[in-house]
Each structure stands twice: as structure tokens, then as C-alpha cells.
Amino acid sequence: MNGQASPAGIYVHVPFCLTRCGYCDFNAYADLDELKPRYLAALEAEATLTAPGWAGTPFVSVFLGGGTPTTMRPEDLAALLAHLRTSFDLANDAEVTIEANPDTVDVGSLRALLEAGYDRLSMGAQSFDLAVLSALERIHRPDAVRMAFAAARDAGYANVNLDLIYGAEGETVESWEHTLRETIELAPEHVSAYALTIEPATPLGRKVASGASPEPDPDLQAEMFLIACDLLRDAGYRRYEISNWAKPGFECRHNLGYWERRPYVGLGAGAHAYRDDVRWWNVRPPETYLEMVEAGELPIGGSESLDPSDAYLEEVFLRLRILEGVPASWFEEARYEPFLASGLLDDELGQLVPTERGMLLLNELVLGLTA
Amino acid sequence: MSTEISHIRNFCIVAHIDHGKSTLADRMLEFTHTVDARQMRAQYLDKMDLERERGITIKAQAVRLLHDGYELNLIDTPGHVDFTYEVSRSLEACEGAVLLVDAAQGLEAQTLANYHLARDAGLVIVPALNKIDLPAAEPERRTEELSNLLGCEPGDILHVSAKTGEGVDELLAAIVARVPAPVGDLSAPLQALIFDSAFDAYRGVITYVRVKQGTLPSNAKVKMFATNVTSEAEEAGVMAPEATPVDALGPGEVGYLVTGLKDVHHAKVGDTITLAGKLGATEPLPGYREPKPMVWSGLFPSEGGDYSELREALDKLKLSDSSLVYEPEVSQALGFGYRVGFLGLLHMDIVRERLEREFDLELISTAPNVEFHVFRSDEESVVHNPAEMPAGGDYDRVEEPVVYATIITPSEYLGAVFELCQVRRGEMVDMSYLTPERVEVHYVLPLAEIVFDFFDQLKSGTRGYASLDYEPWGFKESKLVRVDVLLHGEPVDAFSSVVHRDKAYAYGKKMTERLKELIPRQLFDVAVQASVGAKVIARETVKAKRKDVLAKCYGGDITRKRKLLEGQKKGKERMRRVGKVDVPQDAFIAALRIDDKAAKK
After folding, report:
1. Which residue in the set B549, B564, B565 is minimally distant from A242, CB to CB?
2. How far apart are CA B222 and CA B226, in angstroms?
């Protein structure tokens, strides 16, 4: 590689959870707690193994995702971050995010995490409607979010995200507005709001397939998206990606790295990594991951090399997700003109940016532009 | 050498489907030692795989049985309404017919229809009750039914079990005794009736013939009257039951001729073979008719399929099926294909199945339709494709084919039969009681109504007891209109249908409702309309799609997301465009197929 390497991110996957939620198809387990000590050691070992391949790459973000990383002890998480700092060239002002569930944190643990360097907290609130939470099989109550959020503030967190999910069974527009208002009242710096997606290989997916639960209504979800856009905008948040809103300056640097196709390291079971049009990923089952790392092997499960057309397609659909958009000069006018005319795209100084309606039909935009 | 003419008996078996015709033929082969018991297999004469599986015989065939010094030629007739003309030609080759009736089921429509054909052809009828070993057999009642019909003595009716072989010897004896020997002048110029023809990949066109007069030598230069084609014949022979060459076929004899022709259209069923040149006859035998398709359907290669493969397959199939006709058709919905004419619904199924099975094609077929005669300022045009029918009002009158239908039903279901025929625009001709419990009804019905699930409705309305047979009965004026189905204002040709004015609304409503469910949502509202001429008679709306995006797309999701988009892209490329609307071919297939499903209810 020539010249300066692009700034990169580090993703660390923690596959442990208190319980499994019905909609979640992440690589997460509620019954593997006894693996935690080995897993922590393996993450550190993997970092040591991997780091030489990334020598000279400056890292600007770390993201501990899961699973529920806060099911690990704060001192272990502190040690892990310290190890990453010694292994990789991590900037002093790097953004370091940790995901948490309300039931797994308190002022003490959060203070410890902040002191350790985890300066951004992303909390899975999902909803402030008890009925919606139980439809999602979340174990916490709405109050737990408020308490955990207050605890984060008490601990000194100045950069907090709340995750929300809309469109679960039984959720109404009113309920969703209520959840948004409650969220806005807490005034986190960042809000992620996701339309519930049914994944086939989940308990919820099977319920939908068997007809026991309804498929989310896409029209209602579209409505809810537009409501989120309105309410969050009015509250001073800026939507900088389809499902992400932030107060100015609080956009998640790490996630922007994915959408801007910057490189990232992936550590932990099933974690993905990417650099220069090559993507590779670790083996998914935690036990296999542990065995490979403990044997001194890189735990790689697979990889793909993007050919120019793959890379182009990714570039287009990822860029359309974020505010920046794609340059109009990439396409023939006949491709995007109808979308401008029908109000799905805006032309902002030569950049094509989806409107709110267009964001909802992003797949159609991508297909129409790149056909 | 040839058998003495007085010792020849040519006969066929007339029976309703499942009344045991093929099993009886098997027993006859066995009892006359024509086929070794070791080589015997069920339904020996039904040669093609397809026939054996469907349990029906589609190609007439002749087999020679030797019995007590007599040569018995069993001519197998097709047992389906689609092949009435073929049946009539086979009957022409016989002097007698065994009328075989299931002793449990009794007379059925097909038996009656074929009996009438046989009687009209001057054949001697040998009545026989089959399946007399069945516990449900009612020989007395069936004997009464049959003797009433035939005006014969109850004692003339033979009792047979084709399954056990009981009574088969007696039946063979009755055939010898009652069926007259053929007559024919040995020295007269050759006239041989083609009652079937087939294409063999190695030997070319093989015709099955009945020599009426003169002699057909094994390798003569022959002429086909209807087509005026001459050819060096390669071999004459008899089926015993395997092909066995003979020096010549004499008057009264039945056998095959390897014609040396390469195209079945040169040797058509019903045509007469004579010798080429001065020795030949000057006149053909009467009764030849061109095969006439009754039912039409568009056939299209399915997704990714190749139009030229379909063309080649049809061209090849035509070599062995002289009644198959087709013309190219371009549908904006289904692409390039053919409008194919069939003798009837069974023929359509068989052709479709052979195309798919023998040529490995995947096909989409449009709902079958009949042929319409459109009259406009004294000009008559024939329309095979509903999409080509002039729009409402742009003609003076339209005629549609009608059939003369024979229905036999238990009298308790007579009401249901009346109602069905009424709804299907039928006109009753007459009705008579075969026995106090069973009624024979005749109706003139539009063929279009028969084509559209009539038989299934008849069966379900009579708990499966009614039977149906019909024959073409000319054309009749009718208040027909073309109903178009429009997507976003563009007509979809594959869904156009010609229906009676009173049924237009129901058809339009059904199609628009169905398509509303099948057409994927687009970026704009899509109107699904049915219209007659400029008048919209039904309307549904496919609401614009509002959401098509994956909410989450982080590091691990990107590959999956890209593949999803690539899949969507491929799906889009495969879609058909109707005006501005993208429609997956699956939706067309489903919309056309539900018709079939509804028809099977």
C-alpha cells in the first residue's frame, strides 16, 4: 500500500447476553457465561495475532458490540481496551463505544467504563411501551431505561445513544410517538431507530412464518419513520443515516466508517473485517472461535474479494444511506431524473441525496440508478 | 400367406373409460396365445409411456389374434371425445364392435356416443358386461339396460370378467360367430383406409391400414389421395402383436405400412392409400376430413426459456402428431411463443406434457379458448386468440362453436345437471330414461363453456356419477364480448378473454382481484382494470410501495445486503414490463394457473 492508510475502526464482538430476544439474529448466546474468561483472553490473543497486519494504520474508533458487552465485568473490559491500545495504533481521541442493556449497568459500572476510556454509551432502549417491549421479548421495563440513562449521566457520560425499534406487533403510531417523546425528553446525544426486521432464523421469524405473529406492516413502518424524522428534527437531531440521528457533532464515527467504506478490524466470534475491497470474517460459534485462537490460529471463517462491480454497488448503496449521497456525475441523467421528478432524490450541488420518502425506498433507488 | 377372407374378423371394443377395455384386450392376447404369458404386461397395447401412466389409449392400433383358424383383428379405438374423428375412422376399419359395459357402473355417455357411432357405421354390435366378478356388479339390471338400448335378447349379452378371464373364450367365439367377414374384391384397384399413422424415429411414417379392396404389396410405389404424395413403401406387415412383415395385405386385412414418408402430414388419418400410376384407384374412400383444432392456447417458454427450443420441439412433435397446428404469437406479457390448436382438452394436456417431458421445456400456457367467427360487413374472419378479437361493437356478429353433448346421470342429480347446463348457456334437446334411475340428456352447449371446467363441475354436482360425451355441432351466433385486463392503462394481452356479455363482469372482477394480489407494489399506484371496449367494468388498485430498505447495515451486514440487492436486481431483469409496470413472470403464471386450479375443483 502506498501513501497514508485510511483511518480505521476496530469492532469487538461480545457474544454474551442475559437472555435471547425473540427478534435478534445476532451471534449472541444467553447460556455461555462460563466461557467469559477464556473469551476475554482470546480477544486479547486475537488482537495480538492480528495487529501486525495492520501496522501503520491509524485507528480512530472502537466499537464493542454484541451480544451485550456490559455482561462482562468492567475491570475485564478495561483490561481489554488497554490491550487494544497497546496492540493497535489507536488515536488518543478515538471514539470508543460500548453497547449496554439497561439491566446490566449502574452508576458504578458505568463510571468504571468511562474511566477506562469507553466514552460513548449505546443503550438498547427499544421502546417506552411495555407492550412493545414484551412483543420484542425484552426483559427490561421502560423505567429501567430512564434509570440507566440517569445513571449514565451521573457517571459522567456526555455521549449516549438510545436504540429504538419500531413496528413490532401491536405498536401503534401513538405508542411510537410516545416512545419518541420519552426519548427526546431524556435528550441523548444520539438516537438509532430501526424498523423491526423479521429474520427467518429467530423465534419471532418462526412465529411469523407459522402465522402466529403478523408480518410487520411496511406502510405503518414507513409512517413511523416519517414521524421519527419529524419529531427528532424538531428536537434538534439531524438524520445522518437511514436509521441514525444525532445532535450536531455526535454522529457515530465508527459506524460512518462502515458506510464510507473505510477499513475495520473485527475481533471476536463472527466479527467482520474489511480493507481494500476484501472482506473477511471470523468463525461464528464461540467455541470454535476459542479453539482456533487458543491454538494460535487466526479464527477466519471466510472471506470475499469484491470485484469492481461489487465494490461499485456497495459504494452506491452505502453512500445513499448517509447524508452525503452519491455524485450525480456517476450516472446517466435518464437514470436519476425520474427519481428527482418523483421526489425520491434531491440534487444537492451535484450530489444525489435521498429524500425522506426516498430513504424508505432505498433499494429501488439503488436498483434504478445502477440497473 | 394371407388368410382366406371368410376367416377374417375385424372388430373393435367400445367402452367407457375404466370399463376395462385394455384389460380385456390383454386377456384376448393371452387367450389366443398372441402374447406369451411370460411377456404379458398390463395394458400391452398402450405403447407410449404417457398412455400407460394416464391409463388411456390415445393412438389407435391394430393387433392380429389367431383363434380357431380365424384371424381376428382387434382395432383399438381412442377413448376420448377429443378424438371422435379418429374413432370414426377406426370404426370404418371394422365390421363389428364389442360394446363393453361395466356391470357395476352401467352405460355411460362415452359408451353411448361410441355405440351410436358404431351403429351408424353399420357395425354388428356384440354386447358384453364386464367385471361380473365384482361384488357391486348388477348383471340383471345392466342386462335390462343394455337390451333396452340395443333391442336385443338378454341372452345375447355376454358376461365377462376381463380380470379373471371368465367368459373371454365365449366372447371370442361370439365375435367369430356374429361379426361378418369383410368383403372386398382382390382384383380391384387398391383402396386402403388409413385409420392411424405414427412417426417412428428410425422408420419414418408408419400407417395403420385396412385394405378395402385390391392388394397392398410389401414394397410398392403408393400414393396418398388427400395429399397426392407418392412414395416407395418399405414394408407391409401385421402386429402380432409385435410388427411382423408380410408379403402383402389382401382385401379385408388390417396391418401396417412403412410408407417411406418422413412427415405424418403426408399420410393423414382418414386418407386412402392406393398404388401410384395407372394401376391405382381413381377414387378415394369416402369420409376423409382434415383434422380440425377445437381448442387453442398460447404456449410460451417460461422464464429464461428459449423460444427457438419451443419452435424446434413443436416442429418435431408435429412429425408424429398430424392434428397439431400452431402459429407464432408475440405477447407483450409473455414474450415470443405460439398459439397452438388442439383437438380438445386432453389433446392439449398431452401435447403440453410431451413438450415438457420429451423436450425438457418449461412452458407457460394461457387459458384455453375456442375459435370465433367474426362477421363484419359481410366479411368473415376466424379468431384463435382472444386478444385479436375486435373490441366491443366493432363487428356485426360473432359465432362460436357449439357441441352436441350427451350426459348420463342418476336421476336424483338431474336438477344439478339442468342447473349447470343452464348456467353454461345450454339448450336442452331431449331426455330419456335408460332405467328408472338413470337418465340420458342431450344438450347443445357452447364449446367455450365445456372448455372452462364444465366436466369438473358436472362431476362435483353429481358426486362423480354423471358422464359426458360431446361432438362438434357447428357454430352459433352469440353475444360475446372481449374483456381486456389493463395494468395502469395498458392491456395485458395474455389475460384478454372472450366471454358472454352476461359473464363479462364476473370475469373482470375475478381477474382484477386476483391480479391485485399478484402484482408487486410499484413506486406508484397501479390501476388494475377490466374493460369491455372503452368501458371499465371492474377496478382494483395496487397501492404504491412505501418501504423497501434494510434498517440496519453495519460491518457484518454489508455482504448480505449487497447479495440481497443483486438478487433483487436479477429479479427485476427477469420481470416483464407492461407499460410502466414491472410484473414478475411468476405473477402471470399464477394468474393463469389459478384458472386451472379453479377448474379442478
Report:
1. B549
2. 13
Give me the sign of the Cα torsion angle B247, B250, B255, B260. Answer: positive
Does B523 contact chain A (CB < 8 Å)?
yes
Rounded Cα distance between B195 and B193, Å, is 6
Measured between beta carbons, the chain A residues lying within 8 angstroms of B551 are 194-197, 242-243
pLDDT per residue over A148-183, tens digit each?
999 999 999 999 999 999 999 999 999 999 999 999
Residue of B nearest to A266 (CA): B555
Pairing, β B204-213 against β B191-200:
antiparallel
Cβ count near A220 (within 10 Å): 18
Question: CB of B137 within 8 A of CB of B104?
Answer: yes
Please tell me the pTM assigned to this model. 0.72
Superfamily of domain A8-259 in the CATH hierarchy: Aldolase class I (3.20.20.70)
> How do residues B170-194 score in pLDDT, each as one tens digit?
999 999 999 999 999 999 999 999 9
Asked if A243's CB is within 8 angstroms of B552's CB, the reply is yes
Closest Cα to residue B195, out of B308, B273, B280?
B273
Secondary element (H or E) of residue A38: helix A36-50
Average pLDDT estimate for A347-358: 95
Q: Is B520 in contact with B571 (CB distance < 8 Å)?
A: no
Answer whether B445's CB lies under 8 Å from B401's CB: no
Residues of B in contact with A65 (CB under 8 A): 554
Which domains are delineated in chain B?
A: 5-178 (3.40.50.300), 191-275 (2.40.30.10), 295-366 (3.30.70.870), 373-478 (3.30.70.240), 481-600 (3.30.70.2570)
Taking alpha carbons only, the member of A5, A43, A113 closest to residue A266 is: A43
Q: What is the pLDDT of residue B600?
A: 35
Record: contact B568-A317, CB cut-off 8 A: no
- Nearest-by-CA chain A residue for B572: A367
A194's enclosing H/E stretch is strand A190-195
Cβ atoms within 10 A of the Cβ of B357, count? Answer: 11
The predicted model gives B260-276 an average pLDDT of 91
DSSP A249-314: T-S-HHHHHHHTT--EEEESTT-EEEETTEEEEE-SSHHHHHHHHHTT---EEEEEE--HHHHHHH
Which set of grid coordinates corresponds to residue B416? 344439478
β-pairing, A120-126 with A89-100? parallel
* Domain limits, chain A: 8-259, 311-370
Query: Is A272 in contact with B562 (Cβ distance < 8 A)?
Result: no
Please state the length of chain A: 371
DSSP strand pairing (A244-246 vs A238-241):
antiparallel
* Residues A121 and A152: beta-carbon distance below 8 Å: yes
What is the C-alpha end-to-end distance of chain A, expressed in Å? 32
